[in-house]
UniProtKB/TrEMBL annotation, chains A, B:
The gene is thiL. This is Thiamine-monophosphate kinase. Mg(2+) 4 binds at residues 39, 52, 83. GO terms for molecular function: ATP binding; magnesium ion binding; thiamine-phosphate kinase activity. Residues 328-356 are annotated as: Disordered. Its EC number is 2.7.4.16. It comes from Marihabitans asiaticum. Residues 37-148 form the PurM-like N-terminal domain.
Length: 356, 356
């Protein structure tokens, strides 16, 4: 008898899958030739296949008192699909891994599945396989692999930015970081309303611009990256991979800051826009004659790199964000923006529970 | 200063990856267009993409006192590549996920990487991406996703077996189960020699017939499955998916039993051949006029199914193996072969540590 109090330890794998798979495969996709239930999934593709994977660990990447299971499922899809989008690909299938302590409620898993399924459908894809296994007490680990199709286009890597290119962003900046900041300040989620509640919701279940990556690739983006670790940190990765400098302009970021400042204050808003993680918006560069598709916001320009120079500048000044790292405990709680434009209190946002 | 005593908690992600990636990418592959280091990997493919994923949890799927890290790495690759092979595909890229407690020695991770890298090279593929994240104390979880290419062939599913087909196996039977049986009996690995030591090695690091799946597909296999949960249990899956019955013949299995019987005795050898898990050999069916490729051993024939009948028979008698299940603790320690040909003590072999 399965009800809302059933835990995974009371069921065998077959019964767990019998409950979970209908939730995960509620939607269909034309690119799936063989879905769940065989040794492996078979996905239609053109010439190249794009693949990425990400893991979320309870107590490290989410907290049950902050995030609903549906939101955790959405976030898992968002992280992976935005990595595909950053290559210029569209998703063709998702593989979901669950490694859990036996006393996880089945209800939680099915609600996670609802979030996965809904976000996958928004992104135009479905779950085509995965793995469920037991883990020691206290452990709930979720893994996702997303497979994507370039539809004949060349992949857009981090290494193609050239001096003279425009730097542009698609999607919001700093909202996830600001939401984490509010949660970290101890505010109870159920008492939040309006803009604050929306920032927290955007942290718990980001909604990346699913379509924008393929559109940017088709429009000739020269480089692209998913903003998972903060604007400055991810822009630095493009700069280093392309051997260029990215010059950002604060005037062009002001509209993003203003949207946050009314809730978290201007100083924190700047820190979140420059350094807040888990936003999963896209940063791309476009050649000087290319026209970024609708919805992309120019935020700066690409310049030639010179040795020993900051890879990213803001209004011509060095800007550097020291971020949070999964393994290096010495950085936890020491986040901040360094340099001439020092902006304390940057929410790096990779971890909900490792913050002070 | 990194040495053999360094743990993951002493390093940041960047340094962990700087150590691990050279180990993982020691070999190259012509199907990789963009490997590790960008948002996602890009793999060359023909028309369809095959994808599968598997997870191994320390304390559930391996024990550090039984398995070397290189062996755990080999087993992770074996599980995944054999799932691709069972669809008729060749691997084009692997994604590796590590979620670990911070005090895991880096040395262990690099030795795992050596096993992954070596097994991947044998299978003709490489690691093209992945994810490293922190997990709570006591937890080491490994995930792998394998992406494969059908090279223009149709996928070989579990559902294509037809009455009159030949049932054939490629690779060994029961060796991994027998090796687990020896470990479970408390024998110290370093004191084992000869055939016993080899059975244990085959359990800790199975070497599936990497190439055989694509060859069988090209030769017209009508159905195929990876033997991960035991011959009878996996044959039953093919029978149910194809709506047929698989009739196995003990005479044709005798050679496999004889190889084990000298070490574990005849009764245990039968139990391991029929029910032992984690072998990762392939079971396929071939049409009556098809010629299975070199190395495939005929072990029976496909018959029409009748209602309420056993999906698999041995010498015309019902045979059923009750196996171990990851979540259902009530089955742990109650493994065995039921029915007329009852063979007690079957090693199901999905778990090293949940055995009595």
């Amino acid at each position: 008898m399965i009800d809302d109090t059933t835990t995974l330890g009371e069921l065998d794998e077959e019964h767990i899958l019998a409950e979970l798979l209908p939730v995960l495969t509620r939607h269909t996709s034309a690119t799936v030739r063989v879905g769940v239930g065989d040794d492996a999934a078979v996905l239609a593709a053109h010439v190249s296949v794009v693949a990425t994977t990400d893991t979320m660990v309870k107590g490290v990447d989410w907290r049950d008192d902050w995030s609903l299971p549906q939101e955790v499922g959405r976030k898992l899809v968002a992280q992976n699909v935005s990595d595909l989008a950053a290559m210029g690909a569209r998703p063709t299938g998702l593989l979901l891994t669950v490694a859990s302590e036996p006393n996880l409620p089945l209800r939680w898993l099915l609600q996670l599945g609802e979030g996965v399924s809904a976000a996958a459908a928004e992104a135009g894809t479905v779950v085509v396989g995965g793995d469920v296994s037991a883990a020691p007490g206290g452990v709930v680990l979720l893994g996702m692999t997303a497979i994507g199709d370039l539809e004949g286009r060349a992949p857009v890597t981090r290494a193609g930015a050239r001096p003279g290119d425009v730097v542009a962003v698609r999607g919001s900046l700093g909202r996830s970081g600001a939401g984490l900041r509010l949660l970290g300040q101890g505010a109870a989620r159920e008492e939040m309303t309006g803009a604050a509640a929306q920032l927290v919701a955007d942290h718990c279940a980001p909604r990346p611009p699913w379509e924008a990556g393929a559109e940017a690739a088709a429009a000739g983006a020269t480089s692209m990256i998913d903003l998972s670790d903060g604007l400055v940190r991810d822009a630095s990765r493009v700069a280093r991979a392309s051997d260029v400098r990215l010059d950002l302009e604060s005037d062009l970021l002001a509209v993003q800051v203003a949207a946050l400042a009314e809730v978290v204050g201007e100083e924190a808003a700047w820190a979140d826009v420059l350094g807040g993680g888990e936003e999963h918006s896209l940063l791309a560069t476009f050649g000087p004659t290319a026209r970024p598709p609708h919805g992309w916001l120019a935020i700066g320009a690409v310049a030639a790199a010179h040795d020993a120079e900051s890879p990213v500048t803001l209004d011509g000044q060095r800007v550097e964000v020291t971020g949070w790292d999964h393994f290096d405990r010495s950085t936890a709680g020491r986040e901040g923006v360094a340099g001439p434009r020092a902006l304390p209190g940057t929410t790096k946002g990779r971890s909900e529970t490792d913050r002070p």
